[in-house]
Amino acid sequence: xxxxxxxxxxxxxxxxxxxxxxxxxxxxxxxxxxxxxxxxxxxxxxxxxxxxxxxxxxxxxxxxxxxxxxxxxxxxxxxxxxxxxxxxxxxxxxxxxxxxxxxxxxxxxxxxxxxxxxxxxxxxxxxxxxxxxxxxxxxxxxxxxxxxxxxxxxxxxxxxxxxxxxxxxxxxxxxxxxxxxxxxxxxxxxxxxxxxxxxxxxxxxxxxxxxxxxxxxxxxxxxxxxxxxxxxxxxxxxxxxxxxxxxxxxxxxxxxxxxxxxxxxxxxxxxxxxxxxxxxxxxxxxxxxxxxxxxxxxxxxxxxxxxxxxxxxxxxxxxxxxxxxxxxxxxxxxxxxxxxxxxxxxxxxxxxxxxxxxxxxxxxxxxxxxxxxxxxxxxxxxxxxxxxxxxxxxxxxxxxxxxxxxxxxxxxxxxxxxxxxxxxxxxxxxxxxxxxxxxxxxxxxxxxxxx
Length: 451
Hints:
By secondary structure, this protein is α/β, with parallel strands linked by helices. The protein folds into three domains: 3-207, Rossmann fold; 218-409, P-loop containing nucleotide triphosphate hydrolases (Rossmann fold, 3-Layer(aba) Sandwich); 421-451. The chain contains 16 helices and 15 strands. It has helices at residues 10-19, 26-35, 51-65, 81-94, 112-120, 129-137, 154-159, 163-170, 190-199, 230-241, 253-265, 279-290, 324-331, 354-362, 407-419, 426-444, and strands at residues 41-44, 73-77, 102-105, 124-127, 146-151, 180-185, 204-207, 218-224, 246-249, 270-273, 296-299, 314-317, 341-347, 384-385, 402-403. The chain starts with 9 loop residues before the first helix and ends in a 7-residue tail after the last helix.
């Protein structure tokens, strides 16, 4: 279906054409069939299918149709600041000929600018749960007139423990019978269905089956390697492949910090991004990799969704992701918009167990290559310890290594590195969940149960 066939408002259609969109994707067509008739939807669709444009175009058109009535606003809830910024960018492109104010609201930056924006009036608000609740609590944000709702990346919101926060926000909005709600998720699991049943008005379920789970233009390679040889193999791969740029993923923030610093010592122009970084630093890091001021970025899964780098040549899974879907999102950062790319995964004894689940999920084997001795390069940072400071405000771009020379200190180093990213035991996970539920009960004066 062509966008010109949708009978959209002329200024909106002009913005769509200027953005370069001509034909609706499957998820867009099926969504428009329902939402432009003001029907709620629960949409299951993988990343890269055009779902962001699906809900943005819906919001713009419905806001235009209601512009002659009492002022109404829209709220888009996202799991991360990066995704919120990405949605804002696309919204401003699509709505370039519309007189609507769009704003993002997330933590890690000051309140003043966001509060001033709310005071002036915002038509489409894009925010993360924590900052939205803070603004609601300080009475700076009133959702009583917010009659359009989008919950994006719902599965990620649930994984990050935001379900109680979502419920808290939704209670501040008009009842589901007096608003239009859209939920988008890679998987419509039990938590998504429960949320839809509680807070949506008989939503139409839309499922877009992926033709192929992984990106077909990505060349995938798997190396089996020992835990303490991974950095040597990584250096050898970078030396052999000579990628123009690359995203390197680790499973923990400690590993991201350490790998980035070791690469810098070995002469590679590298930076890192983790969830604890202050927002101004995160934005600068992202801008540096996008503008090619930095060639290599080491990241945790905070960058697996919502981070788009044009012409990204390579993705390296320094750690095999523990969630099989994270593998798809990680390697999907390359080979975008029909281009080609390469994804290399290093499987050590600590994380190799995840390979089987990934291959079941993608329904394909990851081709295995065996590294000969020549592919292992000497690590100039060997013997140095890189500790991630607890106070992230003191994080430094340049490493401050400590050299260990004695066998006693080398053994201590190995114990230190081995302890990084330690997987919690089953009992520890249980205690963490109980603590989180108790925290929510105290914070919101409500009772929550583990799903």
